Amino acid sequence: MSYHSLSLEEAIRYAANLPGIFPENADLQVREIGDGNLNLVFHIKDSRSGASVIMKQALPYAKVVGESWPLTLDRARIESEALQLQESLCPGLVPHVYAFDQELALTVMEDLSDHIIMRKGLIEGNRYPLFAEHVGKFMAHTLFYTSDLGMNQQAKKQQVKRFVNPELCKITEDLIFDDPYTDSSNNNYNPLIREEVEKLWRDEELHLEVALLRESFLTHAEALLHGDLHTGSIFITPESTKMIDPEFAYYGPMGFDIGAVVANLLLNYAGQEGWIKDAGQRSEFRQYLLDTVRDVWGHFSRNFVQLWERDNVDRMARTPGYRDLYMKKILRDTIGFAGCKMVRRIVGLAHVADIDTIADPQVRAHAETIALNIGKALIKLNRKAESIEEVIAIAEQYAK
Amino acid sequence: MSYHSLSLEEAIRYAANLPGIFPENADLQVREIGDGNLNLVFHIKDSRSGASVIMKQALPYAKVVGESWPLTLDRARIESEALQLQESLCPGLVPHVYAFDQELALTVMEDLSDHIIMRKGLIEGNRYPLFAEHVGKFMAHTLFYTSDLGMNQQAKKQQVKRFVNPELCKITEDLIFDDPYTDSSNNNYNPLIREEVEKLWRDEELHLEVALLRESFLTHAEALLHGDLHTGSIFITPESTKMIDPEFAYYGPMGFDIGAVVANLLLNYAGQEGWIKDAGQRSEFRQYLLDTVRDVWGHFSRNFVQLWERDNVDRMARTPGYRDLYMKKILRDTIGFAGCKMVRRIVGLAHVADIDTIADPQVRAHAETIALNIGKALIKLNRKAESIEEVIAIAEQYAK
């Protein structure tokens, strides 16, 4: 079937013909549940057996604030290949892919309707005691085993080739590593923080660090990244965590994924200004978020070191002292990228609901200022950082 | 024509049929002038008009010290595409490619028989007053315009894909960044320096630096490198310099190319122990070599900075302070890679004639020890280096 966006009827017919998913006598029901910006997302369920799948079809454009950007359908291939690779490296932490249709840019995958989007869960004040363990393990396994440390170094080069992803990378390069630091028409911010934003545009010490982080994003092909690992790309329950939507997957610096997780926990942390009114309760939830930041790094780094000791394929990487330098580099990148990802969510094109849905503009401005201050401080810290505790201290300092 | 290695007769027939190179009534003469290890190289000349070309055909294996390694024919495509790209960025400094035949892995290119291999020229004591200017310009232009600084950053990612080169990179990874630092069966060294070599195997401070440089080679996709820019890959006359044989081309750290040039000048410098008997004359030629090292860096960096000012496509790269940090990183990488390339030519599988053809094993051991000491010192200096003058000082120190 040549590419066209599927109608609901076509989606049902397509699903009914998939081998081994639905019984012969299935009574399939379909709902389109995507946000319609980038993809169609069909939820298809057999009302008799209860069996269900998700079919995600890439659209050839992206609608962002009304504008329509053409976008390659190849991102569907990248997403489905990344999901399958991640599942093979780290079973249970991504949705299972049943099938991929290159022509239709369509992925058939596990239905996770019993999970909710983590961002929503955090805004509702839920806690996820297993999240840090799960995401730490996910990042350690996917990053280690796709890097020159954990896989054949010639096969890695072929894998780099498979995951060359220029169009999606460009979105990151512009929206994270450029626009927020100049008066770009792509920017979008609360007029109440205009003064703070203008300071950002003039802060050359900050720009220097961002230029270095941008360089790392552009050139350091360390591992296959998820590439967009914010809390909106994580489906969660108290018992289960699933990383979804890796259409930004490409070979880049490991700290970019870890930084995304840290940044989004801290964005929620800043946003609590608008959600929990009681100061004591707010402070307690914030403590939970900071503990989670610490634990994400802790689980990641312990898992990563364990894999290093067990499965390192690079003789030279066993040189005494090298692993410690490597872990420090990941930490520093994590902190720098976390900062960039916070700043862009306040000043740049795409925001986060944790802060943007705070109704009172004054309260929102306060939350935004907290996030901006933490983000800037992390960016300025990055090359000097020695411990994740410095991140916690910065977050505490600006949310007093 | 499906792949097979061409006979002399076939080579003539092939050349005669090339459009626009030889006249109708040409009387073509052929000689096979390759070393037979990796490629066939046919020199084809019309004895009437004097017109001539080189036809280089890749062989599907490499013969290195008797062993036969299978090697991809795709390296011929990489070489011809790299040559054409380099010529477009920097005319006059590489042989012109007339045609490329993918099936036969055959490149038809400009005949440079009036040039000699620079390594040979230096061993004979020749000086090349324009070399530093030429190679500095070549490296600045090819590295700048294939990097995220000098070309569209999305097109660069597609170019990275075209130049993924796992097999040739593996040779570098093993022979430069691994074998020399352990008792590998690939190693090959003068028994008279066995003690020095064993020290190298135990020197963990050195191994740590090599591990970091290896990581940079494996992951830092900064620019399209020549990938093997030693003085045996340079055809030269006092007026003209041509960089040849870029079959190792791939996206890597810029300092790797510059380091290759520096290392090979310094290997000749060490080798002078065996060539110029008169101490005064030897010291004078060595001064010329050190001046050339200084000038190579000087021409490279001045050209590179000029291109940066004129043609930088990255807004963030114009941040004050960034360019200086970038140049310092290139300098440090240059020094580290130069050191690695010196050590591997003394201890590893493939040596250089500048040292290896010194007949007296004692004199050779002396030259080898000088090269090894300079190489180790450069490797240990790399992350701390501030100026090319430190390289000169190290070279002078060990050749006293």
Automatic annotation (TrEMBL), chains A, B:
Q: Which organism is it from?
A: Paenibacillus residui
Q: Which residues cross the membrane?
A: none
Q: Which residues bind substrate?
A: 228, 344
Similarity comment text for this entry: Belongs to the methylthioribose kinase family.
User: One GO MF term, please?
Assistant: S-methyl-5-thioribose kinase activity
Could you tell me what this protein does?
Answer: Catalyzes the phosphorylation of methylthioribose into methylthioribose-1-phosphate.
- Signal peptide residues on this chain, from the entry's feature table: none
Q: What is this protein called?
A: Methylthioribose kinase
Checking InterPro entries in the record gives: Aminoglycoside_PTrfase, Kinase-like_dom_sf, Methylthioribose_kinase
Instruction: Give the EC number(s) under which this enzyme is classified.
Output: 2.7.1.100
Residues in Aminoglycoside phosphotransferase domain copies: 30-280
